[in-house]
Specification:
Blueprint (H helix, E strand, L loop, with lengths): L3 E2 L1 H8 L4 E13 L8 E8 L4 E4 L7 E7 L26 E6 L6 E7 L4 H7 L2
Parallel strand pairs: 1-7
Antiparallel strand pairs: 2-3, 2-4, 2-6, 3-5, 6-7
Amino acid sequence: MVVLIGYQEAVDKLATAEVAFVGRLTHVTPSLSIRSHPPVNHYTLKFEDELRPLKGSIATIYEFHYQQKLKEQQLPNIDGSLDPIVEMKAPHAGRFYVAILHADDNTIKILIEINESDLSMLHASSK
């Protein structure tokens, strides 16, 4: 659950998405993180009023919940192998994101930052 980056990443993830949109993020509100291992950051994300649906239908809400599991160091898996170190990237207001939602609520499952120049190609490839 890290913020992914790039047009190709968005196209790849959209292939299996049920509900997704693209929009400009206007507000990022960090919430209290629940004590866990690994730590989890919680955010409330507000998008501009003009969300562009890419897959499925979206209710007329513009505020969504998103969480990131932190991986500041290598963490052992159940099988004893180690996860690679992942640099965390927090969501930022003013940038465009593709948001893939859980089908049953307003929680973002996958968040992908894209360039504004990718918008037209993204709409064409999602149809």
